[in-house]
């Protein structure tokens, strides 16, 4: 009998380089463990909209000027073309934003849409609130699983006892590959499913390495 597969929900904001690193790890996990990823959006802009005054000026400016557009385009693509386009579009956006260093420009967004065969004019939704209700609902679905004191990504997966296990992260660079990806997945599930476990953390000493 083939091994039954588990669906892991992955909530991301395409702007975040650390979420991008984790998402590439999840693609590795799909290869080495019986896991299928379901891609869903969350929003750093929504997460921080009521605490902008508490944030460093540079980060606040990024949220106000760059954070809404990409995630609005992804949710518009999902609403108009189905769930199956979300992961593909995220890969195309992340490759251009992060690996290629293009950043979240309109040109990069149009290019990513074209890369996956979606209409380039979906980029117009970057400046529209047409699907903000759906965006906020998807964000709430993810953040409600872990609480407000985290960021992106959020991962949720059925645990061994059937109860959902959800967590922020892991934050890692470079992306673990092969058996290293499998070990990290197994270990993450082990600690995240431990009752009363909340946090492991250490200071980041390296920037994301987009290998």
TrEMBL record:
It comes from the Bacteria. SUPFAM superfamilies: Thioredoxin-like. InterPro entries: Rv2466c-like, Thioredoxin-like_sf. Pfam families: Rv2466c-like. This is DsbA family protein.
């Amino acid at each position: 009998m083939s091994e039954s597969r588990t669906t892991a929900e992955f909530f991301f904001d395409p702007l975040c380089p650390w979420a991008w690193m984790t998402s590439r790890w999840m693609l590795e996990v799909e290869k080495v463990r019986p896991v299928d990823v379901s891609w869903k959006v969350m929003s750093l802009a929504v997460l921080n909209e009521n605490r902008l005054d508490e944030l460093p000026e540079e980060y606040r400016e990024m949220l106000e000027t760059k954070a809404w557009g990409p995630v609005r385009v992804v949710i518009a693509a999902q609403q108009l073309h189905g769930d199956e386009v979300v992961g593909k579009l995220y890969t195309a956006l992340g490759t251009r934003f992060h690996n290629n260093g293009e950043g979240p420009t309109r040109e990069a967004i149009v290019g990513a849409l074209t890369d996956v065969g979606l209409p380039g004019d979906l980029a117009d939704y970057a400046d529209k609130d047409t699907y903000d209700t759906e965006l906020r609902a998807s964000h709430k679905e993810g953040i409600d699983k872990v609480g407000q004191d985290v960021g992106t990504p959020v991962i949720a997966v059925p645990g061994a006892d059937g109860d959902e296990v959800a967590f922020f992260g892991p934050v890692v660079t470079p992306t673990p590959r092969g058996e290293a990806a499998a070990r990290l997945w197994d270990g993450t599930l082990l600690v995240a499913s431990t009752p009363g476990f909340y946090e492991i953390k250490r200071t980041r000493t390296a920037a994301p390495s987009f290998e």
